[in-house]
Specification:
- Chain A: Its EC number is 6.3.5.-.
- The complex is a heterotrimer.
- Chain A is of the alpha+beta class.
- Chain A has 16 helices and 17 strands.
- In chain A, the strands form four sheets. In chain A, strands 3-7-8-11-1-12-13-14-15 form a nine-stranded mixed sheet.
- In chain A, a hairpin with a 2-residue loop joins strand 9 and strand 10.
- In chain A, helix 8 packs across helix 11 and helix 13 crosses helix 15.
- By secondary structure, chain B is an alpha/beta fold.
- Chain C is mainly α.
- Chain C has a domain of about 40 residues: Histone, subunit A.
- The longest helix of chain C is centred in the N-terminal third of the chain and has 18 residues.
- In chain C, about 30% of the residues are buried.
- The chains are: A alpha+beta, B alpha/beta, C mainly alpha.
- Chains B and C meet through helix 9, helix 10, helix 11, helix 12 and helix 13 of B and helix 1 and helix 2 of C.
- Strand 10 of chain A pairs antiparallel with strand 3 of chain C, so a sheet runs across the interface.
- The complex binds magnesium ion and zinc ion.
Chain lengths: ~475, ~500, ~90
């Protein structure tokens, strides 16, 4: 029998607000232990939380960007459990009235992954275990999170990966999170179940906690799929439980001793008041948001005449998309702008993180000026390339590297003279060309380009050279 | 207008330089130290801080600087109000040795006014109790009769103020913990409207009920202290900007004021207490107020509603005492989980554990709807019942407690029996209303009886004036000063 | 009626230990308290969506950093600390 994978994701994303969700301590990553702390975020008796406005705004943005309904009325709840990383012994979260509901994220295969909800909550501190000793650091305690919960709509590992990547792109795009899995600012709990193909109802699910790498997630899901299919085929039952993924063995294993821990005794957080998102508030948040990446992609293709693949690469990081848009605006040749970014600039940016930062020496305005020279026919693409290279090295504007001669362009007579001279100097190559060796012409063209310092139009020059030789 | 306020009286003595603040503070410290052996009102004296503030007040006086209304006034704080650098224990073993690193907003306000902190006052452990006897330091005694309890949970403050070991104190009231001990000790206790006074720094028992308020010798004093502390606080999201100053309203005519008397409040009230209440109502009639008898049947569910919701919140609020960040940690344990469990089991007293367990139970899977949710709905019913009542009366007059101060060790027997004594005080907390207890005579045991006046939300100016009018008319017959402490 | 097992389960959730000799009296205590609390179920009440009795809403703080406390202060009350961490040492 064939089995189908059913996955649902709960994704925790740290928001990139300046301060924590309930106190004014910095959210900066790292730092000496317990140095981003105050009486509130270490839960001293008598302290009270005060909700950070930006957290609500960022969460609403995330909701709007994922097609959610924004709840006009929501509230905060306490999720109670005693654990040393939770200084109040409860996490302030949202239970039955989340800020955002019923959204979706579209995949490239056309499927929509439905979102059940997005709610806001606080992160826990960090425990360091060392030979049975527990060291506790509350720097991360109280950092704002959104939890994005899908319906069990994902049907393959590829879909899971694309969904997470898509989510990362959207959230980075609207600027609410850097979504760095390796730093833990995006973590997933994966619900996995299997069912025979064609069966309507879902199987019993297992939840794999706290995945912070796409590669491990793929391994964990694959392992879990096999494990559950094996169990069913051997007549055993899948137990609903929480499992953890062991990176060493590549296996998932049940987490024991948690039988009571699921009774979180949620109730309304009495120290906080209702959150009301009016139409005006929602609209004003919407106005602050950048364009939806999907819409922007369509617009890049139509307005700038870009191949979709190129547009997609530009869109992936908002800084790059913004950069492109500034540099390409009003240019006759926006494709050249895209090529400069995707070619020469990307060549200098190794990692995804570097692309996300997009720190290049050339401003988009400088690139725009360079492209205008191309548009006006003053310089050719090859000169654009070599000049851009120098600009990227130095951060200086194009004018610094282009002589008046470069900018003067070339008359037809000048070009003809140069070409005749080149043919005369390369008699052997000319003879080869006449004898049928097409490639020989390239060598002569090379010397034309060298002599004109790239100002010659290579196609024109090639045609001219062929004429001269045949004549 | 008879001057019954001790705060204005001390203010006058200081400003006319009849006594220096340092001298006055020393007298209070001295009597607190000696009388505390009998009363056990204080769990910690703070002479250093007190004398430092007193010296500052004397300096200001000498320099002719303007003094704040509460400058130089000797006072006390219930030991669940956080004081930076001064041990704050909630009278629980689990918080022994804990020294806050920040000030509660109310203490910050009083500090800026140069109020003189004599010491931290005794209380029921985590404010859970009606006799002060669940304190890990033993209970405070009633200055009227030291074989009787001072009441609870703010028993230490009531005992200190009634015995004049402090001119006023701040207590907290979750289900009657200001009004009940004030009633037992024959003084005034005001539980302000929920949100009128900041809770920031008040160690939580039940967050949606807790409210800090003054315990004083007179209504005038209560109004002065209320005006000082009823301030909007950005640190407390439930703090309101609606509170109005009350002192300036004292003395207004109450002719034609309608006083509602709901009959259900008098079920099971001891006859001598009832009689004292009847006399008080007669005084009001003589002042031109109109008594309106009515019925509030929903009151009868207020006790279970209160215990379910307050204990639910408490079970969550008290989860943090795990021996990791502050407070006591058990001596012997094998691993971390055992450390947490043993620290909590050894650190909390029996009553606190009972309430944590009840609260955990009513919130746990399978019981939430039957208990927590149901109680929450009934809370709404009760709030509406009070709203209806205030549509046809200005204040409500009821007993504060159905009896007078218990003998020592009386409440230890049966938890439920003890809970029943809170019947008259908890509705006010459920509905977030202001309530004040003023002395209204004595029972057959010659212990003080309290009259409780309840107002609509943020009606403190009118409520305190109603209490003030009664005090003006009846003080001689209903108030008895105790011959301990400082004689001014 | 609350059983011994339920009491033990609640105690586990609340991180309290119940000694075997305490169990009987505690169960009895809890039963009488729960019976008392159960009075709420003898009366009908309208369903309220959620309690917003103080009718306040949207009380927010601006996203502005205030310097954190000195670590020394943060750790001041800790029963045990090391290298800037709160510490729970395993015992033998
Ligand atoms: Mg969560
Ligand atoms: Zn903080």
């Amino acid at each position: 029998m064939n089995y189908e994978l059913i996955c649902g994701l709960e994704t925790h994303v740290e928001l990139s607000t300046k301060t924590k969700i309930f106190c004014s301590c910095s959210t900066e990553f790292g730092g000496e232990p317990n140095t981003h702390c105050c009486p509130i975020c270490i839960g001293l008796p008598g302290t009270l939380p005060k909700l950070n406005k930006a957290v609500v705004e960022y969460a609403v943005m995330a909701g709007l960007a994922t097609n959610c309904e924004i709840s006009p009325v929501s509230k905060m709840d306490r999720k109670n459990y005693v654990y040393p990383d939770l200084p109040k012994a409860y996490q302030i979260s949202q239970y039955d009235m989340p800020l955002c509901k019923s959204g979706w994220v579209g995949l490239s295969n056309g499927r929509r992954i439905r979102l059940n909800r997005i709610h806001i909550e606080e992160d826990a501190g960090k425990l360091v275990h060392d030979r049975g000793n527990t060291f506790v650091d509350y720097n991360r305690g109280g950092v704002p999170l959104i939890e994005i919960v899908t319906e069990p709509d994902l049907r393959s590992i590829e879909e899971v990966q694309e969904y997470v990547e898509k989510l990362q792109m959207i959230l980075r795009y609207i600027g609410v999170s850097d979504c760095k899995m390796q730093e833990g600012s995006l973590r997933c709990d994966v619900n996995v179940s299997v069912r025979p193909v064609g069966q309507e109802e879902f199987g019993t699910r297992a939840e794999i906690k706290n995945m912070n790498s796409l590669a491990y997630m793929a391994k964990a899901i694959a392992y879990e799929f096999d494990r559950q299919v094996d169990l069913i085929q051997s007549g055993e039952e899948v137990v609903q439980e929480t499992r953890r993924f062991d990176e060493g063995s590549g296996c998932t294993e049940g987490m024991r001793g948690k039988e009571d821990a699921d009774d979180y005794r949620y109730f309304r957080e009495p120290d906080l008041v209702a959150i009301l998102v009016s139409d005006e508030m929602r609209k004003s948040i919407q106005k602050q948001m950048p364009e939806d990446p999907q819409k922007r992609l369509t617009r890049f293709v139509s307005d700038f005449d870009l191949p979709e693949a190129d547009a997609r690469l530009l869109i992936e990081h908002r800084r790059i998309a913004d950069y492109f848009e500034t540099a390409a605006k009003g240019a006759k040749n926006p494709r050249a702008v895209a090529n400069c970014i995707l070619g020469q600039m990307f060549a200098r940016l190794g990692t995804e993180a570097e692309k996300e930062q997009f720190e290049v020496a050339v401003t988009p305005e400088q690139l725009h000026e360079l492209i205008l020279l191309l548009d006006s026919g003053k310089i050719r693409m090859n000169l654009v390339k070599s000049t851009l290279e120098k600009m990227l090295d130095t951060g200086k504007p194009a004018k610094e590297f282009l002589s008046e001669q470069d900018l003067a362009g070339m008359s037809a007579d000048d070009l003809k003279a140069v070409c005749e001279k080149a043919v005369a100097e390369n008699e052997a190559a000319a003879a080869d060309y006449l004898a049928g060796k097409e490639k020989a012409l390239k060598a002569i063209l090379g010397s034309v380009m060298k002599a004109t310092r790239g100002r010659a139009n290579p196609q024109e020059a090639e045609k001219l050279l062929a004429d001269i030789i045949r004549r | 207008m008879e001057p019954y306020g001790i705060i204005p009286k001390i203010g006058k003595l200081l400003r006319s330089k009849e006594i220096s603040c340092t001298e006055l503070t020393k007298q209070y410290l001295h009597s607190a130290e000696t009388e505390n052996k009998r009363l056990n009102a204080y769990v910690k004296l703070t002479p250093e801080a007190a004398l430092k503030t007193a010296a500052e007040v004397d300096r200001k006086l000498a320099a002719g600087e303007e003094l704040s209304p509460l400058a130089g006034i000797p006072m006390t704080l219930k030991d669940n109000i956080s004081t930076n650098g001064i041990e704050t224990t909630c009278c629980s073993k689990i918080l022994r040795g804990y020294t806050p690193i920040y000030d509660a907003t109310v203490w910050d306000i009083l500090k800026r006014q140069d109020a003189v902190l004599i010491g931290k006052a005794n209380m029921d452990e985590f404010a859970m109790g009606s006799s002060c006897e669940t304190s890990c330091f033993g209970g405070a005694r009633n200055p009227h009769n030291t074989e009787r309890v001072a009441g609870g949970s703010s028993g230490g403050v009531a005992s200190a103020v009634a015995g004049n070991l402090a001119a006023f104190g701040l207590g907290s009231d979750t289900g009657g913990s200001i009004r009940q001990p004030a009633s037992f000790c024959g003084i005034v206790g005001l539980k302000p409207t929920y949100g009128a006074v900041s809770r920031y720094g008040l160690i939580a028992y039940a967050s949606s009920f807790d409210q800090i308020g003054p315990i004083t010798r007179s209504v005038e004093d209560a109004a002065l202290v209320y005006d000082a502390i009823a301030k909007y606080d950005p640190m407390d999201s439930t703090s309101s900007e609606k509170a109005q100053p009350a002192f300036s309203s004292l003395g207004k005519d109450i002719k034609g004021m309608k006083i509602g008397v709901p009959k259900e409040y008098f079920d099971g009230v001891r006859e001598d207490v009832k009689a004292a209440l009847q006399n008080a109502l007669k005084v009001y009639e003589s002042l031109g107020a109109e008594i309106v008898d009515f019925s509030m049947p929903s009151i009868q569910y207020s006790l279970p509603v209160y215990y379910i919701l307050a204990c639910a919140e408490a079970s969550s609020n008290l989860g943090r005492y795990d021996g990791i960040r502050y407070g006591a940690r058990t001596e012997h344990y094998a691993d971390r989980d055992e450390m947490i469990c043993k620290t909590r089991s050894e650190g909390f007293g029996a009553e606190v554990k009972r309430r944590i367990l009840l609260g955990t139970y009513v919130l746990s899977a399978g019981y939430y709807d039957a208990f927590y949710k149901k109680a929450q709905n009934l809370r709404g019913t009760l709030i509406r019942a009070f709203e209806d009542a205030f549509a046809h009366c200005d204040v409500i007059a009821v007993p504060t407690v159905p009896m007078t101060a218990f003998p020592l060790n009386f409440t230890a027997q049966d938890a439920v029996e003890t809970y029943l004594t809170d019947i008259c005080t908890v509705p006010v907390n459920i509905a977030g209303l202001p309530g004040i207890s003023v002395p209204c005579g004595f029972g057959g045991d010659s212990m003080p009886v309290g009259l409780q006046l309840i107002g609509a939300r943020f009606s403190e100016p009118a409520l305190l004036n109603a209490a003030f009018q009664y005090e003006q008319a009846a003080r001689r017959d209903v108030f008895r000063a105790v011959e301990t402490g400082v004689v001014l | 009626m609350v059983t011994h097992e339920e009491i033990l389960k609640i105690a586990r959730l609340a991180k309290l230990s119940v000694a075997p000799e305490e169990l009987d009296s505690l169960t009895k205590d809890m039963n009488s308290i729960i019976e008392f609390a159960d009075a709420v179920n003898s009366v009908a009440a309208e369903d309220s969506d959620f309690d917003n009795s103080n009718s306040l809403s949207n009380v927010f703080r601006e996203d502005k950093v205030v310097p954190s406390y000195d670590r020394e202060e943060i750790l001041k009350n800790a029963p045990n600390q090391e290298d800037g961490y709160f510490l729970v040492r395993r015992r033998m």
